[in-house]
Amino acid sequence: MSGVRLSLDGRVALITGGSRGIGAECVRLFRVAGAKVAFNYRTAQSRAEALVAECGGSENCIAFEQDLSLAEDGRALVERAVARFGRLDCLVVNHGIWPPEDAPIASMPDAQWRQTLGVNLDSVFGLVQAAVGQMEKQPKTSPAAGHIVLVSSTAGQRGEAFHTDYAVTKGALISLTKSLSSELASEGIYVNCVAPGWVATEMSAPAMNDPVLSRKILGTIPLGRIATPREIAGPILFLCTSLAGFMSGEIVNVNGGAVLVG
């Protein structure tokens, strides 16, 4: 008896922030599952080009240099992906920024607040708006008209002191997931969310390289370690397959047991 395959044959996926970390693992897994994949990068051109080559070349995988700070940036990226592959079946909103320095709310600069909201929320609005418009008008290749997965964080569920800007945006993605699901499920567009805890990425490296802070972080995780990027990419892939065909509006917690919310 053969194993169960998570198949995305014939589908097209757009993965934001795909040149490294969780995004790069999503690119790899979605290609293994049979999807054609577009992803964006901001500065890591050589890394993006290497990932495209690893995933079989530009016929099936393409990287776009595209900043995501504004709604129009998100719309532009969707347009570029559709122009390249002709359709869009899966949108994975993985990009985001986490300013690493503590910023008390009493002294947080306006510029930091606006930048975090611009990257983590405004661009998401543009991405989702354009993706939904495309999914609604294109012919279906499966029972679903499309899949959208937003990547939130435990910070959006329990808050994060001195990182209010980040926590606010990640909490908003959880609310956006529920709102979009209520609006779009009847059209066959499935919207779900993955909320990771600490993951071994470049963004978390400064904290995990601090002996005192890393001990504190690990002490809050029942599994006693942080996640690998693939352990987050796996659930994201699952949510875009037929095996998740009765899931919409869900917040999937992938945090090693650190935050237990329903």
Mean of all residue-level pLDDT scores: 95
The low-pLDDT segments are none
Q: End-to-end span in angstroms?
A: 35 Å
Number of strands: 7
Order of helices and strands: EHEHEHEHEHHEHHHE
Tell me the overall shape.
globular
What is the annotated CATH architecture?
A: 3-Layer(aba) Sandwich
Number of domains: 1
How is this structure best described in words?
The chain has a single domain, classed as Rossmann fold (3-Layer(aba) Sandwich), CATH 3.40.50. About 45% of the residues lie in helices and about 15% in strands. It is built from 9 helices and 7 strands; from the N terminus they run E-H-E-H-E-H-E-H-E-H-H-E-H-H-H-E. Strand 4 (about 90-95), helix 4 and strand 5 (about 145-150) form a beta-alpha-beta unit. The mean pLDDT is about 95.
Quick structural summary:
By secondary structure, the protein is α/β, with parallel strands linked by helices.
